[in-house]
Amino acid sequence: MRTEPFGNRHRHKGYLLKSNAEYSFALLLDKLMDAGEITEWLYEPQTFWFEGIQRGTVSYKPDFKVVWAGDEDKAIIYYEVKRGKIEQKDITKYKRMAKYYPDVKLVLVFQGKTAGNGKWAIRTRILLSSAQKYVNHIWYVDEDYKRLGIKTKF
């Protein structure tokens, strides 16, 4: 099976991952599965529909579904991997998920904390602050990638 990148897409375990960020996260999930921390992960397995919405975001498909081992409270968590850019439409998806599917746990995966005082960095921090109201957690994975030796640039 082809695993090398083409563009910024990667084939991995039968999935076509749409970005380097998703591929890096899949490698992290593989390591967690090897360690017995998770029992399964799936890529884009489910679409959540927002009934009654006629304009804008009417559905949402999180990037990953992860089944964690040994902890019934957090057994299934959905993960949305962002490459460093977040937009208002993303916040709308998270807000609608929280409203329509309050029992679904959603974690936003971000490479690292946004540093600097440029316009883009400030806007990203503001949007992440807004997203935090609607997701269960924001997971800054850069330290985990370093610790586990996972490449993030391909």
Quick structural gist:
The chain is built from four helices and ten strands; from the N terminus they run βββαβββββαβαβα.
Keywords:
globular, 154 residues, alpha+beta
Contiguous runs where pLDDT drops below 50 for at least 5 residues: none
Mean pLDDT: 88
The radius of gyration computed from the alpha-carbon positions, rounded to a whole number of angstroms, is 16 Å
Helical content, roughly?
25-40%
Q: Care to describe what's here?
A:
- The strands form three sheets. A five-stranded mixed sheet has the order 4-7-8-9-10. It has a three-stranded antiparallel sheet with strand order 1-2-3, covered by helices on one side. Strands 5-6 form a two-stranded antiparallel sheet.
- The protein is built from four helices and ten strands; from the N terminus they run βββαβββββαβαβα.
- The protein is 31% helix and 26% strand.
- It has helices at residues 20-34, 88-100, 119-131, 142-148; strands at 5-6, 9-12, 15-17, 38-43, 48-49, 59-60, 64-68, 76-82, 106-110, 137-140.
- It is of the alpha+beta class and 154 residues long.
- The longest helix has 15 residues, at 20-34.
What order do the helices and strands come in, and which of them pair?
Blueprint: E1 5-6, E2 9-12, E3 15-17, H1 20-34, E4 38-43, E5 48-49, E6 59-60, E7 64-68, E8 76-82, H2 88-100, E9 106-110, H3 119-131, E10 137-140, H4 142-148
Parallel strand pairs: 8-9, 9-10
Antiparallel strand pairs: 1-2, 2-3, 4-7, 5-6, 7-8
